[in-house]
Amino acid sequence: MKKIIFCLLSTIVLLALLVGCATTPTPAVTTTPETTPTQETTLTPTTPTVVPTPDNPEIIMASTTSTRDSGLMDVLIPIFQQKTGYKVKPIYVGSGAAMTMGKQGNADVLLVHSPTAELQFVADGYGVNRTLIMHNDFIIVGPPSDPVGINGMTRATDALQKIADAKFNFYSRGDNSGTDVLEKSLWKQIGIIVSATSTTNPNWYIQGGTGAGMLDLLRIASERGGYTITDRATYLANQGILDLKILVQGDPALLNIYHVIIVSPLIFGNVNFAGAKAFCDFMADPETQKIIGTYGVDKYGQPLFFPDAGKADWQVGQ
Amino acid sequence: MDTIINGIVQAFWMLVHGDPQVLQIALLSLLVSGAATMLSLLIGIPLGTVLGLSHFPGRRFLVSLVNTGMGFPPVVVGLVVSIFLWRSGPLGMLHLMYTPWAMVIAQLIISLPVVTGFTLAATQQLDPKLRLQILALGASQVQLVWLLLKEARLPLLAAIMAGFGAVISEVGASMMVGGNIVGQTRVMTTAIVAENSKGDFAYAIALSVILMALVYLVNFILTMVQQRSKTR
After folding, report:
1. Alpha carbons A40 and A50: distance in angstroms, whole number
2. What domain range is A203 assigned to?
3. Is A38 inside any structural domain?
4. A143, A241: one domain
5. What ipTM describes this predicted complex?
6. Is the pLDDT reported for residue A15 higher than 70?
7. pLDDT of residue B105
């Protein structure tokens, strides 16, 4: 009996040691440390490449759930890691929570879509190098039968007004994410004040979800037959499992713009600035931008994101 | 219903073909929860033995703490461990957040009270006369404890099973401190949550089947050890 226990325990210990080994990045070939990762720009993901070894290879990237739920980052992160030797720890939360992580120095770089809050974040000194990456748009989705009759409306606020008048179930993220902030600003424009913490929200306005992002809320709205606002990418990439239809789109107020922001190394000395900069440069790189622009076309018949690097903010969607 | 059958079929295929991603996730689950259980045994058995066999002021209070700990909500453990391990936290310089080690720490905190509590109960229920008898035969303190633990081996193996069961099935804390990062900190339970929200139910069920098989396998081995020792 002792033998068996001993065998079991020693296996577990051995395996535990393996975990330690597995988590240290082990690039195949090493180059001189002077080579900064950003200089490797002409490599394609398919060519066998010399992977540089950065001094501090770990980057925490905080982003919004739509970049994960659309599948985009699952494509981009491996390419980035292969090109630069950095190891990304992607943490997908809402844009609000991502910026909170940034404000505490708990992330190195952010990929977020909440422009007003982003500008405040940068103005407060927490972020530097805010770089325009891409956009898509928000859409209002709802049951295919469209009980309120908002299908085809061109102004988002008109549609919301109609939902409010009908007191029909509307599902909100309620998590201060980029989508949530935009949605609440639209309600505000038509004089309906809702907030995540308020107990006076109308009873048809439901803040739900497991805090796990856009897709979870879409699933709830789909199962319970209500309306919600979503980014187009998350919806398109998952429409097969959703009983929801696009009802309102094309309003300029529904533009959804993504920026990369580096968490300020001036405030937080332990921020991996070199790694964050490499990620930022990678996202704006013409080659990456091309991948972003074509991602999803084969699967969904249309791109999920439109690359915008190098443009000014006001040019987006023009 | 079809989903469940598809899931079970898919689970078999993934095992037969040795789907690398599934194997990697299953292995990490086993490693993290195994390491956490091991550590909690190393700390919990001595602690539970001391609490079970000795008498000192404040002992009852400590026992009540252990018993409460057996029902610790994993998400609370996850939150507290996160606060400590974030870069802005007191242990931030260790860079453990979003690594398997962070998950081991969180799971250790979850399983330690379980192991301690079971050990405590196991040593406490031993006949006090046994203790007198062993001492009367001239055993040293160390020999006494060793013999008593040997006598309590059946419930002690139950402690291992309970401790391991608590952490292998846990999702809240692992999600919070691990981040469910593919290839780094994704374990069975967090993968099931992620697949479920993606709507890939068949894959989620396949993972569930494999997780349950894994838990069963570990408990089967432990039960064999436990029951074999009973017949001797």
Report:
1. 10
2. 137-254
3. no
4. yes
5. 0.72
6. no
7. 97
Is A74 within a domain?
Answer: yes
> B219 in a domain, yes or no?
no
Residue with tokens 């990697």: B24
How far apart CA B148 and CA B146 sit, in angstroms, is 5
Domain-embedded: residue B107 = yes
From chain B, the residues in CB contact with A270 under 8 A are 87, 92-93
As to burial, measured by CB atoms within 10 angstroms (0-12 exposed, 13-18 middle, 19+ buried), residue A129 is middle
Q: Do A16 and B199 touch (CB under 8 A)?
A: no
One domain, residues A142 and A229 = yes
Token pair of B59 as six digits? 């002992």
Contact A74 B182 (CB under 8 A): yes
A240 pLDDT higher than 60: yes
Say yes or no to pLDDT of B171 above 80.
yes
Give CA–CA dist A182/A199, Å, rounded.
Answer: 20
Looking at the fold, whether A186 and A212 belong to one and the same domain comes out as: yes
Give the closest of A1, A16, A238 to B35, CB-based: A16
Residue in B with minimal Cα distance to A238: B198
Whether the pLDDT of residue B37 is over 60: the answer is: yes
Structural domain count of chain B: 1
> Is residue A21 in some structural domain?
no
Q: Which residue has the tokens 């074509």?
A: A294
Distance CA B15, CA A226 (A): 40
